[in-house]
Amino acid sequence: MPFPFLYLDTSFYFLSGIVAFLVSFYAFRYTRLIENSALRFLSIGFTVLGVGLLAEAFIDTLSFFIPSTSSYLLLHRLIIREAAATYSFLQVLAYFVILMGYLLSRRGPASAASSNGSMNRPPTIGFLASATSVVLASRLGELGVLIALAREIIIISSALSMAFLVAIIYLDSTGYLKHRNKQAILVLVGFVLILASQAISFSLGIVAARALGFSEILDFIGTAVQFAAFLSLLLFLIWRGKIGSTGKSAQ
Amino acid sequence: MVQPEKARSKIRIYMDILQAVQDDGMAKPTRVLQKANLSHERLTRYLGELVQKNLVKENQDEPGVRYYTMTEQGIRFLQELRKAESFVSGFGFEF
């Protein structure tokens, strides 16, 4: 086993993925109820995040079965890095779609209700991008090249994700200041923690080649911070559910 | 400079009417009109739609005196709308 925290890491990915799908489910449900297209973007964005998180958990689990002896060490690292690169790419797409939802919602309820989102294929693009990188680098015949390429994808994707998240946090905080909704703090905290985990991923991409042991600890911290973000979103979903059933208003 | 308020969405108006009817139990149109902040013409149209959707029930005990009550379906619908509202505003979106 390459790192003792790997089981916990995988569990965090899995549980975060479930929460992402829950957010997506409720966003989709309310899209239909109140005919708000901004929510549709939110639903698609969180579905992409959920797919990425569960794929990451699945590939991490698969990597348990590859012996991490010296002859397989490079392959082991490659699988982990490729999975992380694919997930990073999916995150860029997810946060971009979520940002589109926020921008659409700022145009007002009437326009948000009449517009139609048509971004149904981002996960495919993510996997294709990663698969293409594998094929290209395979031709070069170097696993080391693949690992380096994956690292580049992680760095660029993390930087893009951070930019999108900063914009999302800005729009979300202006929405919070307008509505003064207590539960919105949990969503805001969630996005801020996701941004923090992206910053860790970004720094991880930079240090990865230099200090493997350190990068694994940093990777675990990043995943734990991201899990805390999804826990915050889960708390929001639970709190929100109670408000509706007790007959209180949201504001 | 004070910015003008955005127009309420149709679902928001439905919610305000249903909330007004639920608060009063047996709500007279004038009371709903005040609480939902609507013109008489628009209130009549929206109340008609809500009655048609079986979300509120129109009652008339004596000639010329109408009042509205919530149906079971209306109560459930309002509850779902409240949850949707808290979800939407939680993400800072407009309802």
What this model shows, in words?
The complex is a heterodimer of chains A (251) and B (95). With 251 residues, chain A is mainly α. Chain A has one domain (6-242): Rhopdopsin 7-helix transmembrane proteins (Up-down Bundle), CATH 1.20.1070. Chain A is built from eight helices and no strands. In chain A, helix 3 packs antiparallel against helix 5 (122-140) and helix 5 (122-140) runs antiparallel to helix 6. Chain A starts with 5 loop residues before the first helix and ends in a 5-residue tail after the last helix. With 95 residues, chain B is an alpha+beta fold. Chain B has a single domain (10-84), classed as Winged helix-like DNA-binding domain superfamily/Winged helix DNA-binding domain (Arc Repressor Mutant, subunit A), CATH 1.10.10. Helix content of chain B is 58%, strand content 14%. Chain B has helices spanning 10-24, 29-36, 40-52, 72-90, and strands at 56-62, 65-70. Chain B has a two-stranded antiparallel ribbon. In chain B, helix 1 packs across helix 2 (29-36) and helix 1 packs across helix 4. Chain B is globular. At the A-B interface, helix 1, helix 2, helix 3, helix 4 and helix 6 of A face helix 1 and helix 4 of B.
Summarize the structure.
The complex is a heterodimer of chains A (251) and B (95). Chain A is an all-alpha fold.
Count of domains of chain B? 1
Strand residues, percent of chain A: under 5%
What would the average pLDDT of chain A be, to the nearest integer? 78
- Outline the biggest β-sheet of chain A: none
CATH architecture of chain A: Up-down Bundle
Going by CATH, the homologous superfamily of chain B would be Winged helix-like DNA-binding domain superfamily/Winged helix DNA-binding domain
Report mean pLDDT of chain B, rounded to a whole number.
87
**The CATH class of chain A:** Mainly Alpha
Could you state the order of secondary-structure elements of chain B as H and E? HHHEEH
Radius of gyration of chain A over all CA atoms, rounded: 19 Å
Helix- and strand-based class of chain B? Answer: alpha+beta
Give the overall form of chain B.
Answer: globular
Which ranges of chain A are low-confidence, i.e. pLDDT below 50, for 5 or more consecutive residues? 110-126
The number of helical runs of chain B is 4
SSE order of chain A: HHHHHHHH
Question: Separation of termini of chain A?
Answer: 50 Å
